[in-house]
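Entry: ribose-phosphate diphosphokinase
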Amino acid sequence: MKLFSTTASQKLSEEVAKTLGTTLAQSEIIRFDNSEVRVRINEDVSRETCIVLGSSSNPTDTHLMELFFFADALARGEAEKVIAFMPYFGYARQNIQHRTGENVSVNVVIRILETVGFDEVTTFELHDEAIAGVFTTPFTHLSAFSLLSEECKKYLVEKEVDENSIMIASPDQGGVERARSFGKDFFGKDDFEIIVIEKNRDQDHKHVSTAVDLYGDVSGKTVILVDDVTTSGGTLINAANLCKERGATGIIAAVTHHDFGPGTGQRIQDSIIEAFFTTDTIVLKDGQSFDKLHEVSVAPLIAKYIQSHF
């Protein structure tokens, strides 16, 4: 087995390789002045299982092209099996046609991944698990909630927060099962209440949404807002504000992917959210870190998956 990395996930890939007791396979990624990219495999991959680890994070299109070119280069090197491990799967939120005339982006990306030569695809925390049904090649959907729930629990124990006063909340209607999955890891049981925030999204304006109602009683409770990805921070902050209005005494967030846009970190830092727990599926850019951010690595989960499957 050989492990390769795109430029999107170099540090994470190195941590995975170290955990596995190996080193990254050698490749060359050249980006030309006209923004085109070229990938070259610098070692023999004939009859090898090759894993390409790379998030399709911002700039999404750029990182996707690297993945596609890795698949082609490895196929030309006669690799026996080529696997895409995408810690973050870009375009996953564009999974339905919201308005007449729109494309469905995630379907297009999936078709290209399959056509270009990937034999399997693995990722963390898809926006909608139903996306898995679009794949015709083997697809694996992993979760980082076991890591995030452990970190949240440590934080709340240090704050001496009574577990009986903790509520798990979904910041929108579509994330209920995601919140339930997190809650099972956090509480270690199936029997617990989920708080749901009703959200309206403005389809004519990007990153604009409003929290309009809350189902459940958060009065006197510490709320953990659970989501798959945060870009503008609006959904989380609006949900946190509504929880506070309804009497919540503390609010933290657990989000797998920090796909931050400009100013998101500062908005969360300035919000009533007291701690933001996330993972390293996406590399933080300069200026995106902030005091309330707690990042945990998914490298052990990736290494464990690779060890058990390849």
